[in-house]
């Protein structure tokens, strides 16, 4: 009897492990415009301007597209932050693989840019670069500007004013609460749990914007 129960428990465990792998429905994988999910999230896409580390405008459309399950998590983060008079400003979301190749041609250094041969989590529509804003949309003081590739941007860098450390922690805590994984070397970068289940894409932002 005991063996039968054990076998049943084992079968249940295996089934669950499999369903964990297949926890995303086809609808979850669709790329959606974050402002259609929550228009209060501020979108300021740096790669759609010349104000980025390459000095070049790399996107044709200043939009934040994310896999739907990621966008819904971010919506929850925004709602939670609003309760304390804060909000989100996103700097980068889904990034087409062809743009990753351009970034790599300018900075072929894996400390700063993901090698397009492997692809970035941004290429999967599962990563987001963002900061905190107050209720008027002003950015809160953070350790560095966006895409500052120095150790000052690392999450374990503490030679900073108390308010900056506090702001970085507020962002990190709320993102973790909703299933995002912080990148240790960039305080602004978070990956959605389960990103490895999603493929690398090269759909131009302009195409996505037509839908
Ligand atoms: Zn990033």
TrEMBL record:
Name assigned to this protein: D-alanyl-D-alanine dipeptidase
- According to its UniProt record, this protein's enzyme class is hydrolase
Cofactor(s) required for function per UniProt: Zn(2+)
Q: Where is the signal peptide?
A: 1-22
Please name the catalytic residues of this protein. Answer: 186 (proton donor/acceptor)
- The organism of origin for this protein: Candidatus Kryptonium thompsonii
Establish whether keyword Transcription is in the entry. Answer: no
An example Pfam family from this entry, by short name, is: Peptidase_M15
What the record notes about the co-factor is: Binds 1 zinc ion per subunit.
- Family from the record: Belongs to the peptidase M15D family.
What is its biological role?
Answer: Catalyzes hydrolysis of the D-alanyl-D-alanine dipeptide.
Q: Indicate the annotated site residue(s) for Transition state stabilizer.
A: 95
Q: What is its EC number?
A: 3.4.13.22
Keyword Transferase carried by entry? no
Which UniProt key words apply to this protein?
Answer: Cell wall biogenesis/degradation, Dipeptidase, Hydrolase, Metal-binding, Metalloprotease, Protease, Signal, Zinc
A single Gene Ontology molecular function, please?
A: zinc ion binding
Residues holding Zn(2+): 122, 129, 189
Q: What superkingdom does the record give?
A: Bacteria
GO biological process: one example: proteolysis
Reactions catalysed, semicolon-separated, are: D-alanyl-D-alanine + H2O = 2 D-alanine
